[in-house]
Design brief:
This protein is globular. The chain is mostly beta strands. The N terminus is likely disordered. A hairpin with a 4-residue loop joins strand 4 and strand 5. It has a domain of about 80 residues: Thrombin, subunit H. The strands form 6 sheets. Strands 3-4-5-6 form a 4-stranded antiparallel beta sheet, with no helix packed on it. A 4-stranded antiparallel beta sheet has the order 7-8-9-10, with no helix packed on it. A 4-stranded antiparallel beta sheet has the order 11-12-13-14, with no helix packed on it.
């Protein structure tokens, strides 16, 4: 059942165009909170999925609760994080039921596997353990415990670059605002050996999904757009992620379009110029 739309009214003193930056113009923005109808799983849904020639889709496991992110070990074991259940489960073709490997992890979300170790991310922490031959994991050890607070986007995604650097998504704490640290709305890179980390890319409101091309090693990521513009604007972005690049948030959306509804302004550059010259657009 589709829930009734909730009408929200916000009024902000913002420039209506680049020429109006020096004087405030009153705008009214009407937005809806829309929640689509829930459709239970069915075999018909699977049959309707379209995949390239030579591929097929089948059900590996079902009724897993709030299954969120997954990683596959070399032996084929599938490890899945479940934020609502606060745990990590293991699935395999030979096991009839999922096994709970780790419990009571508030904010669990990100997961990655490299060189026989599993890495997990909660809001503040990245923890790791050895993978055992029976599919279970060893004792968990904390790698870092000071990632920024979550706010609106508290789910961290993990991924290993081809060179071994661990990348961490840290979303924005809000829809459009100035953050208290440059580590928010950013993709971070962590050196596992010495525990140092840097901001790899800026201006990413919430890049939950990212990966590297298996042949070119180019990094790609999908980013969430702001909520306050419209039900259909902006579209989500697919970006080629380059070290040191800025992808627009909270000043721009889409392909370097200035967000005139947001009150945020770059410090030393007009917003339209900043979006046009200082940011990277989607590819």
């Amino acid at each position: 059942m589709v829930s009734k739309a909730v009408l929200l009214l916000s009024i902000a003193l913002v420039p209506a165009s680049a020429s109006a930056q020096q004087e405030g113009v009153l705008h009214k923005v009407d937005t809806n909170v829309f929640r689509p109808a829930h459709h239970p799983f069915s075999e018909d849904i699977v049959r309707r999925l379209k995949v390239p020639e030579g591929f097929e889709v089948s059900v590996f496991a079902r009724d897993l609760g709030n299954a969120r992110m997954m990683a596959v070990a070399e032996d084929g074991t599938v490890y899945v994080t479940r934020p609502n259940e606060k745990d990590v489960i293991a699935l395999s073709e030979v096991a009839s039921e999922p096994r709970v490997l780790v419990a009571n992890l508030d904010g669990i979300h990100g997961i990655a596997i490299r060189e026989g170790r599993i890495f997990l991310a909660t809001i503040h922490d990245v923890i790791a353990a050895d993978l055992k031959e029976d599919g279970t994991i060893g004792e968990l050890a904390t790698i870092i415990d000071d990632l920024p607070d979550g706010g609106q986007h508290g789910r961290r995604t993990l991924g290993f670059a081809p060179d071994g650097g661990l990348h961490i998504n840290v979303g924005s704490s809000c829809d459009a605002c100035f953050e208290s640290t440059e580590e928010k709305a950013a993709n971070l890179r962590l050196d596992i050996k010495d525990k140092t980390r840097t901001v790899f890319a800026h201006g990413l409101r919430n890049m939950l999904g990212f990966d590297w091309h298996p042949e070119t090693d180019v990094m790609w990521g999908v980013d969430h757009g702001v909520d306050h513009l419209d039900d259909d604007l902006p579209g989500e972005e697919l970006n080629k992620i380059e070290q040191g690049a800025h992808y627009g948030w909270p000043f721009c959306y889409g392909d370097r379009q200035p967000d005139w509804v947001s009150f945020t302004m770059p410090e030393s550059t007009p917003k339209d110029e900043f979006c046009r010259t200082k940011t990277v657009g989607p590819h």
